[in-house]
Specification:
Blueprint (H helix, E strand, L loop, with lengths): L29 E7 L5 H7 L7 E8 L3 E2 L2 E10 L3 H15 L4 E7 L1 E3 L4 E9 L2 H18 L2 E7 L4 E5 L2
Parallel strand pairs: 1-5
Antiparallel strand pairs: 2-7, 3-4, 4-6, 4-8, 5-7, 8-9
Helix pairs in contact: 2-3
Length: 166
């Protein structure tokens, strides 16, 4: 019979030990944090978030969509405050404090983007899939709400809108 983890997940090994080092936060789990003005690489983020002790890695890729609020989007640009990377680190550290993160990576794009371009990529590896999903959800949600990155949208009817993270 499998042991049950605190989150209700079953370990695959009948003699699993919850005190095994692989079940805990890695010594330095924040592997990649960046805000860039060049195209983002999903592969780079996934590689950075890999860890041999992780049983689950969750990856989120945010792309520019062709509409928002019922209006067609023609152009979009992101800009950020000079403290954005420091705030991104604070958000990542909060995720690490709440979950047994083995590896974490997050990159956000700034500059002008087109419909379909990748705007943000985040990934989190944890010992179990449930933790990885929850930690990744916290990372992207808190990034969007707390990191000072602003989106400027131009709509097909000529109107514009600024959307801020903070």
């Amino acid at each position: 019979m499998a042991d049950t983890h605190a989150h209700g997940q079953a370990h695959g090994h009948a003699g699993a030990r919850p005190d095994h080092p692989g079940e805990r936060v890695a010594d330095d789990p924040i592997k990649l944090l960046a805000i860039r003005d060049a195209p983002l690489s999903v592969d780079e983020v996934l590689r950075a978030a890999s860890d041999d002790a992780a049983g689950g890695t969750t990856l989120f890729v945010g792309t520019v969509r062709n509409h928002d609020g019922g209006a067609d989007v023609d152009a979009l640009g992101y800009s950020c405050h000079p403290t954005a990377e420091a705030e991104l680190r604070r958000v990542a550290e909060k995720v690490v404090a709440n979950y047994p993160v083995r590896a974490l990576a997050a990159v956000h794009r700034v500059g002008d983007l087109r419909v379909g371009d990748i705007a943000v990529v985040v990934a989190v590896s944890c010992p179990h899939r449930g933790e990885a999903f929850e930690a990744c959800r916290m990372l992207i949600d808190d990034l969007k709400h707390e990191v000072p990155i602003w989106k400027h949208q131009t709509f097909s009817d000529g109107t514009e809108e600024w959307v801020g993270a903070c």
